[in-house]
Amino acid sequence: MVRHMVTSPAGRRLALAGLLAGLLALGSGCTTTDYVTGKPVRNLFSLDDEVQMGGQYYADMVGELGRKDAPVNQDAARVALVREITSNIVAHAHITQLPYQATFVGDPEFVNAYALPGGHIMVFEGIWNPKLGLVRTVDELAAVVAHEIAHVNCRHSTEAITRQMLPNLLLTGALVWATLEEDDDMQLLFGGLMLVHNGLIVTRYSRRDELEADRVGMMYMARAGYDPRAAPRIWQRIARASDRQTAMPLSIFSTHPRDDLRAQELGKHLPEALALYEAAPVKRNGTRPLVP
Questions:
Q1: 22-36, 71-85, 97-111 — which is least confidently predicted?
Q2: Residue 13: phi, psi to the nearest 5?
Q3: Judging by DSSP bridges, how do beta strands 101-105 and 120-124 pair with one another?
Q4: Rounded to the nearest 5 degrees, what angle is found at the Cα of 160, between the Cα atoms of 155 and 165?
Q5: Does residue 41 register a pLDDT over 80?
Q6: What's phi and psi for 116, nearest 5 deg?
Q7: Quick one: pLDDT band at residue 228, thresholds 50, 70, 90?
Q8: pLDDT at position 132, please?
Q9: Does 31 fall in a domain?
Q10: Residue 250 pLDDT greater than 90, yes or no
Q11: Is the pLDDT assigned to residue 190 strictly greater than 50?
């Protein structure tokens, strides 16, 4: 009897209507206010959720790094520098009440830094590797750290999860309906739409988030007394070193903007950042080289 109700035309319509109603209720209940822009955004998660989520991710990452014998917070001078920069910038962020924690990982080959929801900032030694790294001075390292703190304040991780969740659920529901109807054309259509959404639309949002974190982070570092001219300088250097001819055909699927575009966009906002820097009560000695 139950199987007949689901597979009958009326049953299928009822099931699909129930799914759509549930999705609409889910979407309408997740509007909140962006801490940075003050505009309404959709986010299914609270700050407490992000702290719990980020704490679990951090524990898992540290455990994995331990299994790979990667030294975590073992270089006292670099740990102190990363934490000093983080503390200075957090004081000028939009969300200061999070339990921010900066971690330095002594892996000279891994050129990366990233933020976890809730305030964990991970900086890898490869960031200032003399040959492969991104940064040369304290101001440039501050630009990288500020970018990651901006991701936390813009809540990009959980907003991205929310954005992806609702369309994927809708497309999955449509695909299930097409399967129940045994409509091969509609199955191909909705399957293709899911690929397009995850391959183009989701990555477009990710590129937008990266540009926002670049801009917001540059304002944070300027208010904290670090020279914001370091931010576009990083991407100008990377753009000069990159082989754009091989990278361009794949750029439409990239989750990060092009290096030269990032430098250009930061340049547009540099006058505002410089005004904040000039007004900062403290100027950091950011032109000094990084700890060797």
A1: 22-36
A2: -65, -40
A3: parallel
A4: 135
A5: yes
A6: -105, 155
A7: very high
A8: 73
A9: yes
A10: no
A11: no
Residue 203: pLDDT band (50, 70, 90) is: very low
Domain total in the chain? 1
Rounded distance, CA 28 to CA 24, Å? 6
Distance CA 145, CA 142 (A): 5
Query: Is position 12 within any domain?
Result: no
Residue 52: inside a domain, yes or no? Answer: yes
> Does the pLDDT of residue 260 top 80, yes or no?
yes
Tell me which residue range forms the domain holding 87. Answer: 25-279
Average of per-residue pLDDT values in the chain: 80
Q: Are the beta carbons of 103 and 122 closer than 8 angstroms?
A: yes
**Statement: residue 223 has pLDDT above 80:** yes
What is the DSSP code string of the chain?
Answer: -HHHHHHSHHHHHHHHHHHHHHHHHHHHT-EEE-TTT--EEE-S--HHHHHHHHHHHHHHHHHHHHHTT--BS--HHHHHHHHHHHHHHHTTSS---S--EEEEE--TT---EEEETTTEEEEEGGGG-TTT-S--BHHHHHHHHHHHHHHHHHTHHHHHHHHHHHHHHHHHHHHHHHHHTT-HHHHHHHHHHHHHIIIIIHHHHHHHHHHHHHHHHHHHHHHTT--TTHHHHHHHHHHHHS-HHHHGGGGGG-SS--HHHHHHHHHHHHHHHHHHHHH-S----TTSBPP-
Which among 261, 260, 268 is positioned nearest to 236, based on CA atoms? Answer: 260
Report yes or no on 288 lying in a domain.
Answer: no
Contact 245, 235 (CB under 8 A): no
What was the pLDDT predicted at 19? 52
Q: How far apart are CA 124 and CA 67, in angstroms?
A: 16
Cα distance between residue 254 and residue 278, in whole Å: 36
Q: For residues 123 and 111, what is the distance between their CA atoms, to the nearest angstrom?
A: 9
Alpha carbon distance 202, 138 (integer Å): 33
**The token pair that represents 142 in the structure block:** 């501050």
Stated pTM of the model: 0.78
